[in-house]
Design a protein that fits this description.
293 residues, mainly beta, 2,3-Dihydroxybiphenyl 1,2-Dioxygenase, domain 1, 8-stranded mixed sheet, 15 strands, 37% strand, globular
């Protein structure tokens, strides 16, 4: 994906011990920490990669889209064909042939999208998507067809609980909340016509770096029995910033959200200094909240 990677990042024993405690990682599990990002488009999502030094459980057992938990990272591109050529060059398999479809922007402007879902590491789906004639889903690198991730998706078996968590606790808003039917040959790999609820979440006043939730209808969601949380292998945590961690924690308590770690001072080599807490979303995902100081 032509992103920049830095690391392993130096961590003192004390800082790593505090990190493990905050993230609920057992003391005997060791890891190296890396930072992956797109310097030319710094507003895109950044990745913290935890390279484990011992085996842990895998969040997903396959690329089946109906497995509950973390699902994908989406990479906007200005040239889906060249994006696909590079994926082929590195032998990154596609889940299905490239899809081309019509789309209407929220303000009514029509366009089309070109999308392919690829098999990323740890059974993570990686989406390459281009919007034609309308703005991209997130800023693209002006000098390259590759960018960093602009969104992420998860699969839930309880959409209402997830919506409550993101809107009532984290104060996100839903831009789209509809039930769609899977198309013939869809990269989701489910039977054509299978209905699924599609919900997108944005932070207030944000227009990028959003979340998508899929809830498949008809009781076909698979629970692998492995929680979408670190240090399990796969996409195991989202981190969001807030101007008032106290308010988030009050709302979490009101909605009886599980608290993995209470607010504490932290000095993170990637995120900086601040107050940090970790919550558990209804899907099992760890959600780290930071108020920078």
């Amino acid at each position: 994906m032509k992103m920049t990677i830095e690391g392993p990042i130096s961590l003192s024993k004390e800082k790593k011990a505090a990190q493990k405690k905050r993230w609920n990682i057992e003391e005997h599990i060791d890891y190296d920490l890396y930072h992956c990002y797109r310097p030319s488009v710094p507003s895109l999502l950044h990745l913290r990669i935890i390279h484990l030094k011992s085996e842990t459980r895998k969040i997903h057992q396959s690329y089946q889209s109906t497995e509950k938990g973390s699902f994908s990272l989406g990479f906007p591109t200005s040239d889906a064909d060249k994006f696909h050529e590079r994926m082929n060059e590195y032998k990154i398999n596609a889940m299905a042939p490239t899809q081309v479809g019509d789309i209407i922007r929220a303000d009514g402007v029509p366009g089309k999208y070109i999308e392919t879902i690829y098999q990323g590491p740890d059974f993570l789906h990686c989406v390459g998507i281009e919007r034609v004639n309308i703005s991209q889903l997130a800023p693209c690198d002006p000098n390259d067809i590759f960018c960093g991730p602009g969104y992420s998706a998860l699969v839930s078996d309880d959409a209402e609980a997830e919506i409550t968590f993101y809107t009532k606790v984290l104060d996100f808003y839903t831009q789209l909340d509809s039930v769609w039917n899977a198309a013939e040959g869809s990269a989701l790999g489910v039977e054509a016509g299978t209905p699924f609820r599609f919900t997108s979440f944005y932070a207030q006043n944000a227009a990028q770096n959003y979340l998508i939730m899929l809830e498949f209808q008809g009781d076909i969601t698979i629970d692998t029995g492995v929680q979408s949380c670190i240090p399990n292998q796969g996409l195991g945590m989202y981190t969001f910033f807030t101007s008032s961690l106290e308010s988030v924690m009050e709302r979490a308590a009101h909605h009886q959200i599980k608290i993995v770690s209470n607010p504490q001072e932290a000095s993170d080599p990637i995120l900086g200094d601040g107050l940090v807490a970790v919550l558990q979303a209804p899907s099992g995902m760890y959600i780290e909240i930071m108020q920078r100081t």
